[in-house]
Amino acid sequence: MNKKLLFYILKRLLLGILTYLIVVTVTFWVMQLVPGGPWTREKALSDAVIATLNERYGLDQPLFIQYLRYLGRALIFDFGVSYYYKGREVTAIIFECFRYSLVIGIIAALLALIIGLTFGTIAATHQNKFFDRFLMVITTASVAMPSFVISLILLYVFSVNLNLFPTSPVGAPPGIGPYVLPVIAESLYPAAYITRLVRSSTLDVLGQDFMRTAKAKGLQPGKVLMKHGLRNSITPVITYFGPMFASIITGSLVIEKVFQIPGIGRYFYLSIQNRDYPLIMGTTCLLAFLLIIFTLLSDIAYTIANPRVDFE
After folding, report:
1. Residue of 86, 102, 26, 74 whose CA lies nearest to 282
2. pLDDT digits over 5-39, tens only?
3. Distance CA 25, CA 8 (A)
4. What is the pTM of this model?
5. Element counts in the chain: helices (H) and strands (E)
6. What is the C-alpha separation between 172 and 261, in angstroms, rounded?
7. In this predicted model, what pLDDT tens digit does every residue of 123-180 receive, in sequence order?
8. CB atoms closer than 10 angstroms to residue 163
9. Distance between CA 155 and CA 133 in Å, rounded?
10. Domains of the chain, CATH where assigned
11. Secondary structure, 3-state, 94-146
């Protein structure tokens, strides 16, 4: 392995650890600034009960001591016990619901990548023609439209009106039916964004001297595009794909709420409603960790696809 690349990876790992510690720190102290407390309920608890709960969960200790304990546990991904789901470890809850978000996220990310690369390349090779203009309208609308609107439209059209897919939650009836609409909803925005990225970068590559030279040598346009053009035009997608993948596999709060998916996004929403601070902080730190890892992997893949990158 190139020494410069190895040093770059090591430097990024150290920066990733520092970033993770900052996220853990900011998340902890922001939770302390939230009005009320973890035991604030519609039916007020007595002072004796609150004191007992604080003692049980270590909330009677000074804030700085609580912070140091939480920081130490967060480094080994131990986020303590949930305040709402009595007796359950936050890590166990996260892993239980993460499997649903992960499956939907992986399929949606791969679908978005395939659609984006295919339609982006076709649009670039048919610039200013009907298909290109039509695709740009569709992708602009997809990027601009909020995810809850897309989810509700899909649910109303394909489940309520056409009755093609069940409205029951994922995991309730066996089969892939409940997964189809959430996958489409999750993949629509990244697919549209990747399509626009690929179109723009491909148009830029097609105008380069080396592409004209390859065509002048008599190579077929399709072969020139696949062999010389795609490798250069895909680099912006590599940069975008890492953070996007980390975000999509941790679930969308809105989409999982609409389709009743028991995933990370939905549990994060419920944890806010229930003032379950350990679960809020645990899911936030999970997203930060995945973003750091996949951004690093994305950057490494970018250097492989584009060896001219200067690591300095």
Report:
1. 74
2. 788 888 888 999 999 999 999 999 988 888 777 77
3. 26
4. 0.85
5. 14, 0
6. 10
7. 888 888 999 899 999 999 988 888 888 889 998 898 888 888 877 766 665 678 788 8
8. 9
9. 28
10. 91-282 (1.10.3720.10)
11. HHHHHHHHHHHHHHHHHHHHHHHHHHHHHHHHCCCCHHHHHHHHHHHHHHHCC
